[in-house]
Amino acid sequence: MYAGIPNLQAAPALPAGKILPCQESLALAPTRPLTLRRGIGWLKFRSVKDVAPALAYLTLPHLVNIASISQLQKSALLVPIPLHYRRQRVRGFNQAEEITRAIHMYTNIPFSNLLARPRATHAQARLPHELRQQNISGAFSITHQVPHKARHLILVDDVTTSGSTLSAAAQALLPTEAQIWGLTVAGG
């Protein structure tokens, strides 16, 4: 059921429903059936924030592939993938942050806006896979130091297809002694 890839940065398009354990790792929830696509669309493009807890709930079984919830409460930090300030101003909120807050609500795993997105990028979904890494490379920066007790940094986003956004965000967090994971509501 799960497959390993030794390096997220070099990872090809990632299949959904897989765990990719390594220093820079990725945990994906299932592929996007129609109802899930609609839920993500409602949150992201129609500002229906009430959908975020339901989407977050779908990620919970995948957290235990990293460590037990009680261990994660003590040693992990949930980190939402940030939007560029202009995109967030237009949208009015960050969907990844809403999902992260809901995961925190369910699990009591701490979260922090550890990353910023100072460089505007094109929407990844509108780009061919081969241009996504180039588009997002260097788009993220770290806002403050990683807490010493954080042994697991869990990057949270709504969807991943190529893994480029999670990879670029992980790159901004390096070097760190913590394991870096990605957790998305959907892949594909």
Task: Reconstruct the topology from this structure.
Layout: E1 19-20, E2 24-28, H1 34-46, H2 52-63, H3 69-75, E3 76-80, H4 85-91, H5 95-107, E4 115-116, H6 129-136, E5 141-142, E6 152-160, H7 164-173, E7 179-187
Parallel strand pairs: 2-7, 3-6, 6-7
Antiparallel strand pairs: 1-2, 4-5
Distance between the termini: 16 Å
Q: Could you tell me the mean pLDDT?
A: 79
Oligomeric state of this protein: single chain
Biggest sheet character: 5 strands, mixed
Shape: globular
Beta-strand proportion: 15-25%
Radius of gyration equals 15 Å
**Unreliable residue stretches:** 1-27
**Order of strands across the main sheet:** 1-2-7-6-3
Order of secondary-structure elements: EEHHHEHHEHEEHE
Count of beta strands: 7
Q: Number of helix segments?
A: 7
The proportion of residues forming helix, as a percent range, comes to: 25-40%
- The assigned structural class equals alpha/beta
Structure description:
The chain has a 5-stranded mixed β-sheet with strand order 1-2-7-6-3, with helices on both faces. The chain has a two-stranded antiparallel sheet with strand order 4-5. Helix 2 packs across helix 5 (95-107). It is of the alpha/beta class. Helix content is 37%, strand content 18%. It has helices at 34-46, 52-63, 69-75, 85-91, 95-107, 129-136, 164-173, and strands at residues 19-20, 24-28, 76-80, 115-116, 141-142, 152-160, 179-187. The two termini are 16 Å apart.
